[in-house]
Task: structure prediction
Amino acid sequence: MPSATVRAGWCVRFYMEHYNMNLTLKVWRQDNKNAQGRFETYPVKDVSSEMSFLEVIDLLNDRLVKEGGDPIAFDHDCREGICGMCSMYINGRPHGPWHATTTCQLHMRAFKDGDTVVVEPWRAQAFPVIKDLVTDRSAFDRLVQAGGFVSVNTGNAVDGNAIPVNKDNADASFAAASCIACGACVAACKNASASLFLAAKVSHLALLPQGQPERKSRVLSMVAQMDKEGFGSCTFTGACEAVCPKEISITNISRMHKDYLFAGVAADK
Amino acid sequence: MGLTGLFLIGFLVIHVGLNACIFADLPFLNPSDNGEMFNRAAHFMGSTIVTRILELVLFAGFILHIIQGYQLEIQNRKRRGTAYSVGLGNRGSKWYSRSMGLLGTLIFLFLIVHISAFWVPSRITHDLAPVAYGNGVEMHNLYLRMFEVFQSPLIVLLYLVACASLCFHLLHGFQSAFRTMGVHNKKYLTMLKSLGYGFAVVVSVLFALMPIAMHFQWIKPD
Ligand code: HEM
Ligand code: FES
Result:
């Protein structure tokens, strides 16, 4: 057994050593919502292991523009894992092979020289493709509009001790609130269900005192909106939790079901 | 789905319990039992008004579960739209969690054969050999019927496939039913998960042992 320092050195070398690679990208191209899509194959040379996945598409797009072609349309904004825009299905997994990582934070050291990488948009009836890898995820906005808020102005941030919140609830609420609404849960679910997203929004407020007055009406109207938008139903396969870049727990869905069942019989209206 | 699933789980407990009475006839238990314990249990289930009403509720439960199951399956299948060229596969979920409709269909096909082999002759056509145990009450010798049916290797194979399907259906279904009903306490969920795995395996193995024991004549009518 090598000593700890030798092992640590080996790990650093193994994971962090810089290398260049040549890749083949198979990317879904679709001109607009109604057009027939197809895969296009692009060889990409000299990709640095230190690039992010989005930078590789930037690199390819530069070349496509120079060649007078149409650059690949893809969503992105913060490029630091907090906005949830960079949604794409990479080699059969939302946001690519790394656990708890968004596409923008996926580094190319996840791949080897010679790899073929298949890139597809989210596939769900409720998320129609607008162009290439860009899908219309406004259904999520409408879900939040259906009840994912507190109706009164809660004013400025108050003193930390002014409203007592149980620490476990605060932690669980905070964990649920870390959802970035990227839609990976819908993309991975065999039923294209938005239950994990919805449950994150419902739990986030249901666990805090400010969320209590509208707790029942919120869950009822948000679930109704989910069905209206054409998302499927949850059958607890667990795929959503496994691919969520923010590791939102599937137990939130059970909490939402409990609130829903309870609200169904006890709601005021 | 969750409610009817839990109801059917409750039914399985009773069904496997009563049928396991056939094992009283095992050589190292009570070789002179000759199916008496089982026949009496089956007779009891068919001869009181309460159990006959429960039987109707059971049929309703099955029908509801099957209708809901297929509705859910059909609706959910439509939600994807275009299929992925590379799918997530087993990286996010178990194959049996994704195959509840298929596993349920296998159980359903089995149920048709099962009901026509045992339930129809015992409750509708009454063409089973009679047997009495000294107190003047004549009853169906279902034990004998089981033995006859399970001499066919094809039927035994069908039963084994059905038991395997049931096992996988329950490996997912047991815990999923509680999650559907809103259980979100981590301790309970961990407990229910283990309980579910145990239940699925024990029930399916017990059921599977019945055709096997009779086919290989570990137990047989004298
Ligand atoms: C007769 C044929 C059957 C069919 C077609 C069928 C079909 C289904 C389907 C499609 C589901 C939902 C899938 C999912 O949640 O992923 C399901 C769930 C379930 N089934 Fe069945 N099933 C059958 C028989 C049974 C039997 C015999 C039992 C148990 C004794 C059973 C127990 C359950 C349970 C506990 C669930 C989970 C409920 C939930 O997730 O809320 N099923 N079944
Ligand atoms: S671009 Fe914002 S999360 Fe990836």
